[in-house]
Specification:
The structure is a single chain. By secondary structure, this protein is of the alpha+beta class. It has a domain of 129 residues. 29% of the residues lie in helices and 24% in strands. A six-stranded antiparallel β-sheet has the order 4-3-2-1-5-6, sandwiched between helices. The radius of gyration is 17 Å and the shape is globular.
Length: 197
């Protein structure tokens, strides 16, 4: 019997499963862990890992228009993008959940950020499936294949199933920087988020 994805221990009806926390058992479950992390970081966020700034109405945001912490996260992600893309081309079997984050504009005042899964690269052009439910931008939908340029990428992430560590996701680390130190440390530990880069 296949082990069930859960947030606690492995389901008791699976006697062959190893005893470990359920969120790390498969790539799909590990992606659930990242989504849960975003729910804990940003109370009220939907399961699609959008931040409050991602969900904000025009003119509303918890962060200033130019947030230096988030800008630094974008720069860190872009500076290490080549290494990420190289790793994503032919990943080892223990690395899963490769995704890119892009901003999609609608009009002069609206930018919403989306995780893109199952992406492919052709030179400087990319395409992949949108993995967020849009709240502001009406021209895209979850699951839609979206084409974008390298310059649109603001973040990247993947999960190492052996070390139970989420790599990249610099924007989540930026959000954690706004939390009390003890809360941020506990969330990093609980969800394996590596914010040391």
């Amino acid at each position: 019997m296949k082990a069930k994805c859960s947030l606690g221990m492995i389901a008791r009806d699976d006697p062959g499963a190893r005893r470990e926390t359920g969120i790390w058992r498969t790539g799909r479950c590990a992606l659930l862990a990242v989504a849960v992390l975003m729910l804990v970081i940003v109370p009220g966020a939907p399961l699609h890992a959008q931040s409050r700034a991602d969900r904000a109405k025009p003119g509303e945001s918890d962060a200033p228009k130019v947030d230096p912490v988030m800008e630094r996260a974008f720069k860190m992600a872009r500076a290490s993008l080549d290494e990420f893309l190289e790793l994503a081309r032919i990943p080892p079997p223990h690395l899963r959940g490769f995704a890119l984050k892009v901003g999609i504009s609608e009009g002069p005042d609206i930018v919403e950020y989306f995780w893109i899964n199952d992406f492919i690269q052709s030179g400087e052009l990319f395409s992949g499936k949108i993995n967020n439910r849009p709240l502001l931008v009406k021209r895209v939908r979850s699951g839609q294949v979206y084409e974008f340029q390298r310059g649109d990428i603001v973040d990247w992430t993947y999960i190492d199933m052996e070390t139970r560590t989420v790599h990249g996701n610099f924007t989540a680390c930026a959000l954690l920087a706004r939390k009390p130190a003890d809360v941020a440390a506990e969330l990093r530990r609980k969800f394996g988020l590596d914010c040391s880069i």
